[in-house]
Amino acid sequence: MSFFKNRTVVGVICIVLSLLICFAVTPLFNSGISRKTEIVRVVKDIRAGEEIMPDKVKTVEVGGYNLPENVVKNLSAVTGKYACADLAVGDYIVSSKIADAPAAENAYLYSLNGEKQAISVSVKSFADGLSGKLMSGDIVSVIAPDYKKQGATVIPPELRYVEVIAVTADSGYDANTGKQDGKDQDDDEKELPGTVTLLVTPEQSKILAMLEADGTIHLSLVYRGGRENADKFLKAQDDALTKLYPPEAEKFSEEKTESEAPADTDASAAPEKEAE
Fold first, then answer.
1. Under 8 Å CB-to-CB from 103, ≥6 apart: which residues?
2. d(CA 272, CA 276)
3. pLDDT tens digits for 65-104?
4. The dihedral of CA 269, 271, 274, 275: what is its sign?
5. Tens-place pLDDT, residues 180-201
6. Helix and strand numbers, DSSP H then E, in the chain
7. For 170-191, what is the HEC assignment?
8. By the 8 A CB rule, do 67 and 48 touch?
9. Cα(66)–Cα(214) distance, rounded to whole angstroms?
10. pTM of the prediction?
């Protein structure tokens, strides 16, 4: 009889549990699955380091079940930020994949404003690039051996003071950031530079491209220090470039003045001839 009673109790407990699951747990579970929420989803591919523009993302409504806690739900939280990893169409964005500023190894590229350009030149030997000691912000002079095939080694006036914005190893990582794959490098493991990236005008970039194709480029350090003093060197270089390559308006004005000069001379001479 006690065994029967135990079975009855077990059965009642099972019935109660099943009713509880059917009418309490299951509806709550279904409600959680069907609950909708808005998240930010990628609609155009975004590459690592690229700024996230409004046309590349949009908000969509999805089921809220099992979403990561750090998924981004507002467009304002991602637009204008920078991707820390490649994002493909259809990906939702989590806060760990975006940053307020581009990664250190390419941050300098996002500071270009259209007036100047970034160009890289090869460091063909250890000595050419100051034995790997160059850093971002250094002011260097570009020395050209056998300049324009004339047999002379010169510093072109266009390249007397040039700013270094990056020093890159052959692996593609910036050697002057001290980091590779997000890990600090020991001094013994530091990679040697393969290229140096310079901030230049279009006129300077043409000369550097010619030097890169024709021969070896040597870089000599002129100044390393505060931004204020560095700007003085760059200002002197800009003034020299203005004299070497005057703006079109000034050139036109000078040409016009020269073309009018003979006419003025003739006009002043005519009255004297008539007076005689």
1. 48, 49, 82, 84
2. 6
3. 677 888 898 888 888 888 888 889 989 888 888 888 766 5
4. negative
5. 444 444 444 556 778 888 999 9
6. 5, 11
7. CCCCEHHHCEECCEECCHHHCC
8. no
9. 60
10. 0.54
